[in-house]
Write a structure and sequence with these properties.
Elements lengths: L6 E10 L10 E11 L4 E5 L6 H9 L6 E6 L2 E2 L10 E4 L11 H10 L9 H14 L15 H13 L5 E5 L7 H18 L2 E6 L2 H7 L2 E6 L2 E6 L1 H6 L4 H6 L6 E8 L2 E4 L2 E5 L6 E7 L4 E3 L5 E11 L2 E7 L8 E6 L9 E3 L2 E8 L4 E5 L18
Bound molecules: adenosine-5'-diphosphate and magnesium ion.
The site of magnesium ion has 2 residues, from helix 1.
Length: about 375
C-alpha cells in the first residue's frame, strides 16, 4: 500500500543570520549532515533544545531551504521540491486541528485538496479517512469537534490527518510534548505500532532520551547542529563516542569522575579501581553507568554513603566521592543481588565499597572528551 522511501542527506547545512547585534556570526543550525535513513524504519532524532532538530525536520519537509547540500527521497533529488510535492506527512507538538471541523472533516481535509491525477472520488476519500482513523483507533470519535477530545485523542487525529495522504515519509516534531506523562507513554507505543503496521519511513524528533530510546530502530544524537552519533539505541548507550553522548543517554545519568590512567590501571582518587589496558597514561574522565557498580566490602572504589532508596525492582545507593563531578554518585543494585551493605566506619562517615563492571565504565580524553575505551568506530551510515 505504501511506498517505502529511504531519505539521504548530503552535505546538508542550514545557517540562519544572527539577530544578535554584538555577535554577527551566523547560527549554523545544521552543520554538514551526511547520512542515510533506511526505508521502513523509525528514526529518533535526539538532542537538547536548540541543537537543530526542528531545522533538520523542516529541511526534510521542504518548509525551509538549505544553505548548502541536497536531500534525496529514494533516488529522487527533492531539494528543489515544494513541501506539497514531497509526499510527506507532518505532525507537530501543537495538534493544529481545524476547530470548526469534525474529526472526520479534519482527516478528510488534505484529500479534498488533491488535484489532477491524484484527485480521488468521494467514496475513495471516505475509505481512506476511515482507514486512517482505524489505524490510530479513533473510529468512534469521527463526529466530534476537536474541543470535545482529550490531548491524546487530538494528537491521534493529527497523526491520522498526516497518514491519510499515504506519505512516503512521516515527520513528527516532538509530538508527545503536550501530553501528560501517562498519555505520553501510551501514545508513543501507539506511534510505534502504527509505524510497524504501515512501514512508513518515520523520523521522530524529541529532546527526551528515554522516549527516543524506547521506540526508535535507530537514533541520531545531535549537539549544536552537529551529529554526534548514529546507531541502534542499545549500541549507542553501550558504546558512546564522547562524554556528551554518554551523559545525554540514560536515567539515572552516568556518574562522571576525575580519573587517571597509570601503567594500564585506572585510578580514582588514590584508589586503583580497575584494569585500563591499552589506554595510554593520562588524566581522564571516567564515566560509570549506575548499573556498573557491584557492592562488595572488598571493592576497589570507596564512596561516602548518603542514603539508600528502594525503587521496586532496584535499590539505588546514593553516595559521594571527592573525585566525582556530580554531587551525588548513584549506583543501581538489583534487589535480587541484595547483600550486606559492606559499610565500614571511617571517621564518622560510612564508606560503601564497589567493584566496577568493566563494560559499564567509559574513559574519556580530558581535552577532546572522545571516548578512549570504545570498540570499533562509528559511521554516518544507517543500515
Ligand atoms: P531544536 O528543534 O533542536 O530545539 P531548532 O532547529 O529549532 O532546535 O534551532 C536550532 C538553532 O537555530 C537555534 O539556535 C535556533 O535559535 C536557531 N534558529 C532556528 N530557526 C531560526 C530562524 N528562523 N531564524 C534564526 N535562527 C533560527
Ligand atoms: Mg524543535
Amino acid at each position: 500500500m505504501v511506498t517505502r522511501m529511504k531519505v539521504v542527506l548530503q552535505n546538508l547545512t542550514k545557517k540562519f543570520p544572527s539577530r544578535d547585534r554584538k555577535n554577527r556570526q551566523d547560527v549554523t543550525a545544521v552543520n554538514n549532515f551526511n547520512f542515510e535513513i533506511p526505508d521502513g524504519k523509525l528514526i529518533g532524532l535526539l538532542g537538547p533544545s536548540g541543537c537543530g532538530k526542528s531545522t533538520t525536520l523542516n529541511l526534510i519537509s521542504g518548509l525551509i531551504k538549505p544553505t548548502e547540500g541536497k536531500i534525496f527521497f529514494g533516488e529522487e533529488d527533492v531539494t528543489g521540491l515544494a513541501p506539497e510535492h514531497r509526499g510527506i506527512g507532518l505532525v507537530f507538538q501543537n495538534y493544529a486541528l481545524y476547530p470548526h471541523l469534525t474529526v472526520r472533516q479534519n482527516i478528510l481535509f488534505p484529500l479534498q485538496n488533491l488535484k489532477g491525477k491524484d484527485k480521488l472520488s468521494k467514496t475513495q476519500m471516505l475509505e481512506r479517512t476511515n482507514e486512517a482513523a482505524r489505524l490510530v483507533q479513533i473510529s468512534e470519535l469521527m463526529e466530534r469537534k476537536p474541543k470535545e477530545l482529550s490531548g491524546g485523542q487530538q494528537q491521534r487525529v493529527a497523526i491520522a490527518r498526516a497518514l491519510v495522504k499515504m506519505p512516503k515519509v512521516l515527520l513528527l516534531d516532538e509530538p508527545l510534548s503536550n501530553l501528560d506523562a501517562r498519555l505520553r507513554l501510551q501514545t508513543r507505543e501507539e506511534i510505534k505500532r502504527i509505524q510497524k503496521e504501515t512501514k512508513i519511513t518515520t523520523i521522530f524528533v524529541t529532546h527526551d532520551q528515554e522516549e527516543a530510546m524506547s521506540i526508535s530502530d535507530m537514533i541520531i544524537v545531535m549537539k549544536d547542529g552537529i551529529v554526534q552519533q548514529i546507531g541502534k539505541p542499545q549500541e549507542v548507550y553501550d558504546n558512546p563516542v564522547n562524554l556528551f553522548v554518554a551523559k545525554f543517554l540514560g536515567t539515572p545519568p552516568v556518574n562522571v569522575f576525575n580519573g587517571q590512567v597509570k601503567n594500564g590501571r585506572l585510578y580514582i582518587g588514590q584508589e586503583d579501581v580497575m584494569d585500563a589496558v591499552g589506554c595510554p597514561d593520562a588524566e581522564v574522565y571516567a564515566g560509570i553507568r549506575p548499573e556498573g557498580f557491584i557492592l562488595d566490602e572488598k571493592g576497589s572504589l570507596g564512596c561516602k554513603l548518603k542514603g539508600v532508596e528502594v525503587m521496586g525492582r532496584d535499590i539505588s545507593i546514593v553516595s559521594s566521592h571527592t573525585a566525582s563531578l556530580n554531587t551525588t554518585v548513584r549506583a543501581l543494585i538489583g534487589t535480587e543481588n541484595r547483600v550486606d551493605m559492606g559499610a565500614g566506619h571511617n571517621g564518622g562517615d560510612i564508606l560503601v565499597r564497589f567493584n566496577l563492571v568493566p563494560h559499564k565504565v567509559f574513559l574519556f580524553d580530558k581535552n577532546t572528551e572522545f571516548c578512549l575505551s570504545r570498540e570499533g568506530g562509528s559511521s554516518g551510515r544507517l543500515s
